[in-house]
Design a protein that fits this description.
Blueprint (H helix, E strand, L loop, with lengths): L13 E2 L9 H15 L7 H9 L5 H15 L1 E2 L1 H5 L8 H7 L1 E2 L1 H14 L3 E9 L13 E10 L2 E5 L1 H5 E3 L6 E3 L10 H4 L3 E3 L13 H6 L2 E2 L1 H5 L2 E3 L6 E5 L3 E8 L8 E5 L2 E4 L1 E5 L2 E7 L4 E9 L2 E11 L6
Parallel strand pairs: 1-6, 2-3, 12-19
Antiparallel strand pairs: 4-5, 4-9, 5-6, 7-8, 10-19, 11-13, 13-17, 14-15, 14-18, 16-17, 18-19
Length: about 325
């Protein structure tokens, strides 16, 4: 059980889906998600009315937090202009409620305000997000971002409603709406390779990762979180090699039987990959078909799982 100091170093608590009490998102989605859908956007309603709608259902704290996350992610969109011009945008909780279009800061502020009304302890965490293989190893290409942590029964869990609402392109110019609940109570190890807090205390652990480890790790996608596929310790996000060669990457599986197909996506072309499963480990041979620097995505059952950045050179000529 990992210990950490919170705020003034008073309380010792636990964090994370894997480190704390597991949740079943399918059950939450069935029970709470349907109710959220029935509420709709509640345009023009005060924030208290939205939260009171959840209270009337007598949800427990986890269900309440899931409802808040889902309602925000389904009814607020990510504003790419607000991201690039934060000083000219209203990213307060009231701004998020009124405009329904804010940056990650606005999502996080709205989530905290709703948790405050529900009497659930939460915090806003500022930091850096890594969402595309080109940002691996390059802090200048990572994104400024904000998210939350919520305390349920003395356990802190990560929440990112902005990521739950959809995703942006590499340069954060366009936003695609696509709800997912995998960024609710996300496993700590997977969350921290995509989110790096400015203040290390928000890692909530004695064994912390540094910024270099964060930057060098692969990019994790929702399907990897949902299927509980973890990259093996020591696996780097940058894959270096020569044209025509392969690089083997290893993943840890919680449910090996769920993996029926493994592929590699290069230039949006997905092809079958050479792989094998041994016990709870998945071994994938990633090919280097051409020279240059380019993203390579490992896909599981046809969906993006982990992103890598290939750096491939020519093989030397033999005379």
């Amino acid at each position: 059980m990992k210990k950490f100091a919170i705020l003034m170093g008073v309380c010792l608590l636990l964090l994370g889906q894997a480190d704390g009490q597991p949740i079943n998102r399918d059950i939450l989605g069935e029970k709470v998600g349907r109710f959220v859908d029935s509420l709709g956007p509640m345009a023009g309603s005060p924030l208290k009315d939205v939260v009171d709608s959840f209270k009337a259902r007598k949800f427990n704290e986890t269900e309440m937090a899931y409802g808040i996350y889902s309602w925000i992610a389904k009814n607020v969109s990510f504003n790419t202009k607000a991201y690039h011009h934060p000083g000219a945008s209203n990213n307060s909780a009231s701004g998020a409620l009124n405009t329904r279009s804010v940056s990650g800061e606005g999502f996080a502020n709205l989530f905290k305000a709703m948790c405050d009304l529900a009497r659930i302890q939460s915090v806003v965490i500022d930091g850096t997000a890594k969402t595309h293989p080109y940002s691996i190893g390059d802090i200048s290409k990572a994104q400024r971002h904000s998210w939350n942590a919520v305390n349920i029964r003395n356990t802190w869990y990560y929440v990112d409603a902005a990521f739950g609402a959809g995703y942006t392109d590499r340069k954060v110019k366009y936003f695609t709406t696509e709800f997912t609940d995998v960024w609710f109570f996300t496993n700590r190890s997977q969350f921290l390779i995509s989110h790096f807090p400015n203040d290390k205390k928000w890692q909530f652990a004695d064994e912390q990762i540094n910024k270099s480890q964060f930057l060098q790790a692969p990019v994790v996608s929702p399907v990897a979180i949902k299927t509980e596929v973890f990259y093996q310790d020591g696996t780097r996000g940058r894959l270096k090699g020569k044209k025509g060669d392969c690089k083997r990457v290893v993943f840890e599986l919680k449910k090996p039987a769920d993996i029926s197909r493994v592929g590699v996506e290069i230039n949006e072309l997905n092809t079958a990959a050479d792989y094998y499963i041994d016990g709870n480990q998945l071994f994938v041979d990633v090919p280097f078909p051409r020279t240059g620097k380019y993203p390579i995505i490992v896909t599981l059952n046809g969906k993006k799982a982990y992103g890598f950045l290939a750096e491939v050179v020519k093989k030397p000529r033999r005379y």
